[in-house]
Amino acid sequence: MNRISVITRYGFEKNSGHNILWCELEDGSDMRSDQRPTARRGAEETSGGRTPVEFRAVAECGSADLVYFSSVSENTRRFVERLERPALRIPLRPRLEGMIRVDRPYVLVVPTYGGGAPSGAVPKQVKTFLNDPGNRRLLRGVITAGNTNFGEHYCLAGPVIAQKCGVPELYRFELLGTERDVRAVDAGLDRFWTELEAATASPIRRHHERELR
Questions:
Q1: Which domain holds residue 12?
Q2: Does 154 fall in a domain?
Q3: What is the pLDDT of residue 136?
Q4: Same domain, 112 and 142
Q5: Which secondary structure element, helix H or strand E, spans residue 47, and what is its range?
Q6: Is residue 167 assigned to a domain?
Q7: Are both 100 and 189 inside the same structural domain?
Q8: In a 3-state reduction of DSSP, which class is residue 51?
Q9: For residue 8, how many other CB atoms are within 10 A of its CB?
Q10: Cα distance between residue 73 and residue 71, in whole Å
């Protein structure tokens, strides 16, 4: 009997004038109407259970002070690319691709998941990334993407991460962001790093050891 896949998230995006449907499935795979399905979670498993996530250093990309996660919709990636700054991407499938481990302070750009529950607002890949003590220790701030259709839960991932990791939420933008958002974030990051560098002689943040759940 064929297994029925349950869609957990979906949306539309424009590509060369065409509407492209994207969706994420319950089994961990994702699909777009303009490409074949990606590997399902079963490909990540061994006979003894799920394969543990392997972390890998990214010293060769050490100049990046921006880290981001983008789902199959690629909205966050497109926003980050418009900033024209060196950036590292948190892998979409860390059990297959490995998880990055940073070596310098950074600001995190993250989309908000779920329909309003704090427990589901932060993407699981971001939780895995931040639950590494080294990655969490170097986090300095968070920028959040969201959808105003969620009302009071708009950009909920930002406050969750800020509270858990003891860092400021620096900015919020909707979906792909506007050119005004890009300019504001670009200028804001320059100002943020300048002020942070000037404050390095004194404590600038609290290091929380609580993991994201």
A1: 7-43
A2: yes
A3: 93
A4: yes
A5: none
A6: yes
A7: yes
A8: coil
A9: 14
A10: 5
Residue 213: how many other CB atoms lie within 10 Å = 9
- What is the residue whose two structure tokens read 């839960």? 153
- Are residue 30 and residue 77 in the same domain, yes or no? no
User: pLDDT under 70 in the chain at which residues?
Assistant: 1-63, 115-118, 201-213
CA distance 60 to 48: 34
* Cα–Cα distance for residue pair 130/139, rounded to 1 Å: 8
* Same domain as 18, residue 84: no
Question: Residue 160: inside a domain, yes or no?
Answer: yes
Task: Give me the DSSP letters along 84-118.
Answer: T---EEPPSSHHHH-EEE-SS-EEEEEEPPSSS-H
- Name the residue with tokens 């777009």: 32
Residue 157 sits at the vertex; the CA angle it makes with 151 and 160, to the nearest 5 degrees, is 110
pLDDT tens column, 91-136:
988 888 888 889 899 999 999 887 666 678 888 999 999 999 999 9
- In our burial notation (b when 16+ CB lie closer than 10 A, e otherwise), range 96-114 reads ebebbbbeebbbbbbbbbb
66 within domain boundaries: yes
Q: Are residues 79 and 170 in the same domain?
A: yes
Total of domains in the chain? 2
* CATH code: domain of residue 170: 3.40.50.360
End-to-end Cα, the chain, rounded Å: 35
pLDDT averaged over every residue in the chain: 75
Q: 83 and 121 share a domain? A: yes
CB within 8 Å of 114: residues ≥ 6 apart = 120, 121, 156
pTM over cut 0.70: no
